[in-house]
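MODEL INPUT / OUTPUT PAIR
PAIR INDEX: 1
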Amino acid sequence: MHPEWENECKRLDAVKQVIESELMHRRNKTNKYKKQMREINKEMWDSVGVLSGIQTIDETPTFIQEVSLLKRNLSDASENSRRIKMLERQLNSPYFSRIDFREDNYGTESFYIGIYGFRKEDTGEILIYDWRAPVSSMFYDYEPGRALYDSPSGYIEGELLLKRQYRIEKGKLILVFDSSIAIEDDILQDIFARSANNRMKTIVSTIQREQNQAIRYEGKRVIAVQGPAGSGKTSIALHRAAYLLYRHRDSIRSENICLYTPNGVFTEYISSVLPELGEENLYNITLTGLTEKILGSTFKKYESFSEMMELQLLHKHTNKMESRVQGISFKASKQFVSVLEKFANVFENDIIKFEGIRLGDHFFTDKKELEELFYRSYHHMPLAKRLSRMKHLITTRVKEFEKRRKREIINELSNSDEYIDASEIKAISRIKVMRELEKINRDIENMFSINIRMLYRMLFEDSEIWNTCGGVLSEDARSNTIDALDAGILCYEDQAPILYLMTLLGMIDPDTEIKHVIIDEAQDYSQVAFKLFSRLYSHCAITLLGDMNQNINPVSGIGNLRLAGELIDPESIEFFELNKSYRSTLEIMEFASRIIPTKTISFGRNGKIPEVITGITIKDVCDLIVDYIRGIENEKFQSIAVICHTLNNCYQVYKHLGNNLSVNLITGRDNEIPPGIVVIPSYLAKGLEFDVVIATVLSDDEYMTDEDQLFYTVCTRALHRLEIFAVEKAEILRKISVSF
């Protein structure tokens, strides 16, 4: 037992007592808010009778005051409810560490560090420091000895005398441990040996020094974090967001941070982390979600990354898919960035044509005036803004003409010998003028509007334009694009390019609501996508996280995070490289290194050696999987994933397993991952983790050499067990030797 055990127990009891008191106070406030809201609602209903005899809103000051009071009360009640949840969590585990620090020329002070800070209401004394507080960084960054931290008033230097760690569960002190490194290995071993459920957990108590540096860094506009599977990249992303919300609480809210995720399954998986840290979830979006938000009904169907992957894996040997893959590769390249930029220039100087607009002898504008406006008067504006300004100018003239023309017609009809009712005269004049101006209005709309779908189509259809812009694609690949566009489908590989073209034309403004962008799994985005991000978020700080070895679609993904950062801002980028993996056992990481050799340092947790188990047919393989799962039932694993190459494979496996076991199929349409056994396609499993991974290989051409990164990603989803179930003829078996 630790020599300070009794003192630490007393201190914990004292802190819990203060937290319980604050919790009781907050719960009483809840009852007070409920009572106040009932009273306000009653007064508002009483005011409704008065409102029935009032004509204007200005005559209802009491009602307006009551609405304002209700809004304020609801806001206060919501904040109080949030604080109650935090206090309840805090009561369960108030803090996880303590540091003793002697500032130069001052005395020694003890700092207890927890997920949330806690300050006594009456005295202002800080009993617990938030893990994000400046002083807390010393726990993660220093061993006992000379240390410093960056405070609002500058660097504070001194001597770190003690680092102590605690495990507190359900309000009880379980473990006290003094350590000379940030997180003692024994504690890490125990934490990482626990089971995974269907939600990502916080890592506040186990943040490592290199992770902490990435979380807190704010020196340059772009930071890129490269790290192997299990190195905590997504955790860094979310804890960095929490840190930024804490540090810039007066200027940044959760909706001001945009998090790009690969799919809805992943978004749901990480959804509990920030609330556990006391923050609201961020503005989460996928590239496809962004495209659909901007383009709306322009297309009937927006293909997701997962849908593209399924088609690519399922039909990879067909001629049509080979030509599409050629297109995917080119549309992801730096060369296509150049094509789009040249095309925007060609559109401005060669494609746009202006003609005079007239009705009979009346000229609204002529070609010379329009060219003067476009190329000179408004030339400082983005192209789309120029057209919009010109459209407004000419439309105003048309409306003025419309008014005059209506008056002329009304006068003609009023002075005619035939009797016509005044209201009928107005209707006739309106209809007649509308018909006269129908073509004029249509011409204005066509001349000053950009049909982005038709314009993007023109790039691929017009060979002269394509060649002028430097395009390099086969006729088949270009035809594939045109066919999809004509069918109202925007393929995934066309989404970043069409949005980038829109930014070049000034059709999309930089997003001023977003102040920080976090892009997880950044290796899977194309060079065109990063050029899009550079324009769309031109005033934002950006965090990139990824692993070149998990670039599951090398045809389209950039892979290299340093290059990705340079595409956004080559003048202001900081690169962090992680080399430790904390997720999988040593044996699993050694197995994965046969697929892709890496320099990853595995956190030395030992486990069972992965096995390769073969059957003759798919049914044989499924029977073997059923037997295996039944054989490990007593080991109480919380999450078991059967990961198949494609969704099509998943349906086959699910159908067989479902007759024997309680299994859930993950297709991407249902975002939540239920606990227990799931069957999931390879590309949807990225970023997730499971206690047990059963990787299936059901045909001889699955996970060939060009899919090494995909297979590596599948294998590194496992925390404790990895087994490969394959048909005997599978080509991948030649690469992987069964024994260690």
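PAIR INDEX: 2
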Amino acid sequence: MVNFKNSPDRATEQALVSKGITDKNVLYALRTVPREKFVEESLKELSYTGAPLPIGHNQTISGIYTVALMTQSLCLNKSHKILEIGTGSGYQAAILSTLCMSVFTIERIRDLSLKARDILEKLNIHNVTFIIGDGTIGFKEYAPYDRIIVTACSPDVPEALFAQLSEGGIMIMPLEMSGAQNIFVIEKKNGKMYSNNIAPANFVRLIGKDGFKS
């Protein structure tokens, strides 16, 4: 586990690199987005630890390695339009915003969405659109998306999300199977789904029409 108590200094970066995070753009995003702005005051010293941290409403902010791994696995470029399911603290959306053209992020908990939007506004991040609603059905108004990232664990890939993924696009999400969670990279090729299990995971559940019911 990557475990640091301070800002993302050289040691933090070296630890991430040692675990396979080598994309220079991702590492730069992690250095420039102040993660401590997205956690509670009492937890700021733990901002860069490997473990998820509570953000209220029984939700969490993922550990920095998990954020880095999922971001790197999307293979982003500046032309990409991204759909994020599960805004949470807003940290993942902020990281993505530095690496792509636009981010559409959906959160079912209104208070979290509004708080995340306020933080990003204060950080002068303006290419993120916030939506309050059921993330399992996506946001078809701006589909298709080049990339989709789901930051809560689902029992299966929601059909609506796969339908809203561009041909040749990549989706990354945690899935729960037989009681265990793993992060999967999912690619859409000729309309078919190809998936690859890349890491074990520990996420809150994805609640919604095509997710868990509770």
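PAIR 2 NOTE: The domain at 10-200 is CATH 3.40.50.150 (Rossmann fold).
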